[in-house]
Amino acid sequence: MQPIPKKSLGQHWLHDKPTLEAICDAASAQAGDTVLEVGPGLGTLTRRLLARNTHVTAVEYDETLAVNLSSTLGNDVDVVHEDILRFDLTTMPPGYKVVANIPYYLTSNLIRVLCESTNPFSVAAILIQKEVAERAAAQPGQMSLLSVSAQFYCDVSLGITVPAELFTPPPKVDSQVLVLTYRQKPLYEHVDTKQFFRVVKAGFSQKRKTLLNSLSGGLAISKDQARVLLTTAHIPENTRAQTLSLDDWHALYTASQQ
Length: 258
What we know:
The chain is an alpha/beta fold. The chain has two domains: 176 residues, Rossmann fold, CATH 3.40.50.150; 64 residues, rRNA adenine dimethylase, C-terminal domain (Helicase, Ruva Protein, domain 3), CATH 1.10.8. It is 37% helix and 19% strand. Helix 3 links the parallel strand 3 and strand 4.
């Protein structure tokens, strides 16, 4: 008997083979690759990956699904019953790939954990809420903390859109594949990432206010000090965070370190 999707865990099964193949294609999954699959569920995507002769480590939070997957796929896949946010990514071999059809609520945290790992992936193809995928790939004018974070570590692109009706049960919105290719060379040299994102988070801390106010409040500095940062970075003080490019954020970070 097939398990019933748990609403509390945001489970939506995907059986459409062309879509499953497209997700594998987005990660360039091929023979010999080691793939970390997040939330394998019923194993429909897992089976497509195994058909390509990849080595799959499947991390499943739902104990019932993890047990079922172990019993049905046996030694072909390494099933781990664990929260992916607690999974030790350093146990994966260098250059591993990530493939996932994940619950929407997990997206931002998962991207952060994957990107900030000391053992980063090479390519990730994750099926997420279409609106969130578009936010991660956004350009200056519509940037967010998510897009700055994803694009700081990765080249970001969008894959296929997957209509809600292809899932069981159908979610309320369409999904889209987000493709993250980890930068082999850092975008900027000699950056203290903790301090960089401290500045970025401060900038986005009050979305409806100008950067002058957001930086002042977020960094706990005076408006005069915030004005000096912006002037040094050649950014007008009435600018809003979503309009900045990664180069602008780097300039602000650099100014904050002086």
